[in-house]
Protein: Serine--tRNA ligase
Amino acid sequence: MLDLRAIRSHPDEFRQGLERKHADPTLIDQLLRVDEAWRNALAEVERLKSVRNKASEAIAKKKRNGEDASADIAQMREVSDRIKMLDDEVRRLDDEVKELLLTIPNIPHASVPDGKDEQDNVPVRYWGDKPAFPFEPRPHWEIAERLDIADFERAAKITGSRFVVYKGLGAKLERALANFMLDFQTSRNGYTEMFPAFIANETSLIGTGNLPKFGDEMFKLEGLPYYLIPTAEVPLTNYHRDEILDASQLPVKYAGYSACFRSEAGSAGKDTRGLIRLHQFQKVELVKLVLPETSYDELERLVEDAASVLEALNLPYRVIEICTGDLGAKETKKYDLEVWMPAQGVYREISSCSNFEDYQARRANLRFRRDETSKPEFVHTLNGSGLAIGRTVAAILENGQQEDGSVRIPDALVPYLGVDVIRPAE
RNA sequence: GGAGUGAUGGCCGAGUAGGUCGAAGGCGCUCGCCUGCUAAGCGAGUAUACGCCCAAAAGGCGUAUCGACGGUUCGAAUCCGUCUCACUCCGCCA
Structure:
């Protein structure tokens, strides 16, 4: 959430920020209106409580001296009733302020290119040579079915559409990629490996910004205040919730492997085939908690950390900078990594790296202290996929495919998979 | 799932016939003194959030906070209810 005091002192900056994001700038005015009402009610109730506290003290004194205090008590009864009413009012207004604050999106960073939607995103660099095929490249789902390494039909039988069962070398490829990515990010890029729970509570989801607004993108456990995590970002970012870290601990860098569950509400008809858009996929997620003044440098480094996996796997990709209109609600700045998918002839998102500044840190109360005497400040949080495994499988299958239906495995992965080519059964 | 115990400040730990308790005491930490150095000793200080005053900082005033929420009361760390978490025992499991 945004800083309420900052909004009070220069609301125009926030209105403009929301406009850049094509969000509703009048949210700021709504907020300020309720905030003022809240502060007025608060001042009044605190004044009455002050009266009450003094009177209570006087009553205590009288009683100790054996004097009669019944008149004072009767008088205070009225004050107390009024306090009770005002307290309800204050609570109601305070809830309203908090709810609005939780709903208002983050403001884009000054460096983010203006734009309306994804059409206006800006490619910033390209890496790798797209493979040239002397034949018509097949889509990955066809390759996978032919190699008998992924089974969508039976997954639909077991669960439903948008699920997959990996089989044989497909299952091992999934496992090999997870191991490879975790090893890579821990040993090469200095992340601490984490293995979180796949279920998180509502407080955690509010902390990362998935609730209250985006509950319908997740699977909720029936009758419980628990959700299946849509990404390991949720448990990893909440790991230090309500803590005050020492500045010397920063940056905190976590790499967590998890399954990710997405309801994909509203995406009917999109990417209905293959591994691109499933209700469950696995991912290695990178999360950083950093000093505020370093967060944009850390974002650039995060992009490199994610991109270096693609380079190690020799998968062609590009980096695009997301424009203001296409930014998610929580982000101040975001880069997507898009991997080349030869069969469709398009780049597909395989990683998304974002800076949230203190938007999540405020929600999750993630703070640090510069030294023993200084006041706690909010950290900046960042995260990026490093990478989405299902889409990496798809990219490896499509980019490594050969005319005979076999698939060449990237060299870096061979020690993990045990073979350098996946061939169709005879 | 059943039975029980507990939750107080950075940590430990007092505080139940409700009233000068934001909370004794100790440890830790900070500053000063003392000391050849260290240790010990002595003195002072040491929570957070929010609102108001102030151009701002400094500072001042006020309110709230003893797991959370709600209730009783003029007044709650202390009484009542609900919940959460932790621990112990039993059962059940990987």
In short: Chain A has a mean pLDDT of 92. Chain A has two domains: 4-103, 118-422. The longest strand of chain A covers residues 346-357.
